From TrEMBL:
Signal peptide: none annotated. It comes from the Bacteria. One of its GO terms (molecular function) is aspartate racemase activity. This is Amino acid racemase. It comes from Brevibacterium aurantiacum.
Length: 230
């Protein structure tokens, strides 16, 4: 089994999901007392969040590159960023370390193509929805994307950072997210990507009003496939 290095803590609520689901998948495949070979570097998210708000992406690049290098120095044979938004820093990490980075967008594209989804609604932080690093990568793989209008994008983003990343999950926000998903469905989306790792905790895929790809589940599947490859 190969050893994965996880860049975690962004937020720790979703990092728990990664750790649990990777271990469950490995145990399910190998049985017995088997568990996953994981190195986890969990950052203080307050530091990352401060740089996000300041639009200091060079600072975030430097922080995550240092994290990835620590993981590689510790024996990680590949790295994975356990969050969607911080894949904005993926190019800097890929340039700095000499091990593969398992990209969350590629894992979502794999699931979408397997399920024959042609138009994917993307829900996540404002940067994930409005910047090109995420939707552009999906479009490059032949998947059309839809996002809410800009005002709604900022509303979705506010709920993420005021509530979800702090472990707060309310019925009102759940209902609002479902309403937004219905709007995107009406605009032509045949599935929705839950492109913030905490959204699946608020709206589990089975409760969404259209087929949903949970980014954590898709990413974990790709990570475990890499870990178990011969």
């Amino acid at each position: 089994m190969r050893r994965i290095g996880l860049l975690g803590g962004m937020s720790w609520h979703s990092s728990i999901e990664y750790y649990t689901k990777i271990n469950e998948a490995v145990a399910g495949q190998l049985g017995g007392h088997h568990s996953a070979r994981i190195l986890l570097d969990s950052t203080d998210f307050a530091d990352i969040r401060e740089m996000q708000v300041a639009e200091d992406w060079a600072g975030n690049d430097a922080s995550l590159v240092a994290t990835a290098q620590r993981l590689v120095d510790g024996g990680a044979e590949a790295v994975a960023i356990a969050t969607n938004l911080m894949h904005k820093c993926a190019p800097a990490i890929e340039a700095a370390v000499d091990v593969p980075l398992i990209h969350i967008v590629d894992s979502i594209a794999t699931v979408a193509k397997r399920q024959d989804y042609s138009t994917l609604a993307v829900l996540g932080t404002k940067w994930t929805m409005l910047d090109d690093f995420y939707t552009g990568r999906l479009e490059e793989q032949g998947i059309r994307t839809l996002v809410p209008d800009e005002e709604t994008c900022f509303e979705v983003d506010q709920i993420i950072f005021d509530e979800l990343t702090q472990g707060v999950f309310t019925d009102a926000s759940r209902a609002r997210y479902v309403e937004i998903m219905n709007d995107l469905k009406a605009r032509g989306a045949d599935a929705v990507a839950l492109s913030c790792t905490e959204i699946g905790l608020l709206v589990p895929p089975e409760t969404a009003p259209l087929p949903a790809i949970d980014s954590v589940d898709a990413h974990v599947a790709a990570i475990v496939e890499w870990m178990m490859a011969e």
